[in-house]
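User: Quick sanity check before I run a bigger batch. Here is a single chain. Can you write out its predicted 3D structure?
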Amino acid sequence: MPPSLTPAQADLVLELASAAEAADGVAPLSEQTILHVRHGSDSSGTGTGLDWVVASPHDGGIAGYAHLDSPDPSEPDLSGELVVHPAHRRQGVGTGLVATLADAADASGHGYGIRIWAHGDRPESAKFAKATGFTRARELWQMLLPVRDASLPPVSLPDGVTLRPFVPGEDDEAWLAVNARAFANHPEQGRMTLTDLKQRQAEPWFDPAGFFLAERSGSLAGFHWTKVHPSGGTDGGPIGEVYVVGVDPAGQGGGLGKALTIAGLAHLRDSGLPEVMLYVDGDNTPATRLYERLGFTSWHTDVMYHRPGTR
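Assistant: Done. Predicted structure follows.
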């Protein structure tokens, strides 16, 4: 088992990710992996797993990095990510990292397959995936709304439902329970733990005023957690995000999801943001149709590539 990243290695991995983003125009690692690099493994968090680095023979930096999440016994695959420094590409670094991930999956003895996200639907990623035995398995769309000019409908809450902001330390457990139920079939969001939530609360972007809870009869029925990025908009400026919208399955119907979405969008617009983006699975037709009716259009695509195991 590879050791956890040292603080010095973690800094080098973050530098590597920044170099790759500057070259490719898209961040190469997910938020969860970045938080894992920053905070290290924790037995109670979903960011646990294994890390590998390929040292650069020239400047003492890192030529490549790969991460593999800890196994989920209910899943047939292990999720991983990898990135190669722009100066070290086409030298076998990426192929070696894929082989290392495959060896780790095989060593588990459970026949796990591997799924790897490629952030941005780049031809180079598709070519590399094919060469290493991976096939396209899932699309995560990024959609964009020029919210400053959008004509948002009014927030129409179902009868008996009220909105209020999230209170850190008081609403944590209730939110985690509803989030788990709302995303029971989601391979990433549904696994969030208290450690994951606390890590995000410690991030500079966290703002409870933009984290809306819907209550019915004193119980949490749904939520809309918004996020603001200081850069990344179409003009390079700040952009808002529909970070996650969830409704307790017991309370679905009646338009609560739509009302929560509009409430968060109005908050981001009233905060002065010109644009809002969101992520949605490409095959989630009800959600994509809702967002299109609100004025969102397709912007970018992330692709999951998959190599099956024997499980």
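The radius of gyration is 20 Å.

User: Great, the batch can go ahead then.
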